[in-house]
């Protein structure tokens, strides 16, 4: 093997590319793809792929994780969703809320803020609203992650990124325990844009100072329907 000088990235790059060309020499594209598929299937997967918690324990674990991340967490029965949404938004002083297309009309309180369907709005119009109300496709309890799926005809991903406030309604049946279970549940949506949310948006990239609201909503509330 050719010696590579430490600190010489061009030599290292050339060496890596040379090894790749040598490994692929004489292998057709079809065989290369077949070999990649077989190699993927042969990877040992000894990690835990299924959870053991009950639905009530999954709900509790998700709530604990979200609270640790700084999100507001509420729980209610299915018949109480509209009343709870009205109360949460009243406490947050929200008067103009965007709606994702996955929001059940029965969730909307009759006496509350103005709700606006946001898919056809421009970016300035979205930013002029005070927050967004969405559903949740899958929630992963162990990581406190909410997964929202989007389609061209459904909820727009920008609705989960521009507004400063996000209220997400999570059905208990959509909560899984582990990450592998979460990705299996998301498999039918693999060709759609997916937003993964673990608490309010935050970053410490700039001078190690934690700042919220850089890459998405600064404030996140989660209403879990049990």
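^ Assign residues to that structure.
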């Amino acid at each position: 093997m050719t010696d590579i000088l430490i600190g010489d990235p061009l030599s290292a790059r050339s060496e890596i590319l040379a090894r790749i060309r040598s490994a692929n020499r004489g292998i057709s594209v079809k065989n290369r793809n077949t070999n990649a598929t077989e190699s993927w299937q042969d990877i040992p997967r000894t990690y835990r792929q299924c959870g053991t918690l009950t639905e009530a324990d999954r709900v509790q674990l998700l709530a604990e994780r979200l609270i640790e991340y700084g999100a507001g967490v509420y729980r209610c029965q299915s018949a109480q969703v509209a009343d709870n949404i009205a109360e949460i938004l009243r406490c947050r002083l929200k008067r103009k809320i965007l709606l994702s297309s996955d929001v059940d009309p029965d969730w909307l309180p009759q006496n509350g803020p103005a709700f606006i369907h946001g898919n056809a709005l421009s970016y300035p119009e979205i930013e002029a609203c005070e927050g967004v109300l969405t559903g949740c496709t899958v929630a992963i309890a162990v990581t406190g992650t909410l997964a929202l799926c989007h389609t061209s005809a459904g909820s727009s991903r920008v609705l989960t990124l521009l507004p400063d406030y996000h209220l997400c309604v999570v059905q208990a049946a959509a909560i899984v325990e582990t990450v592998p279970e979460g990705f299996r549940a998301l498999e039918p949506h693999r060709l759609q844009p997916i937003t993964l949310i673990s608490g309010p948006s935050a970053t410490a990239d700039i001078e190690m100072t934690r700042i919220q609201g850089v890459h998405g909503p600064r404030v996140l509330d989660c209403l879990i329907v049990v």
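The CA atoms of residues 157 and 210 lie 24 Å apart.
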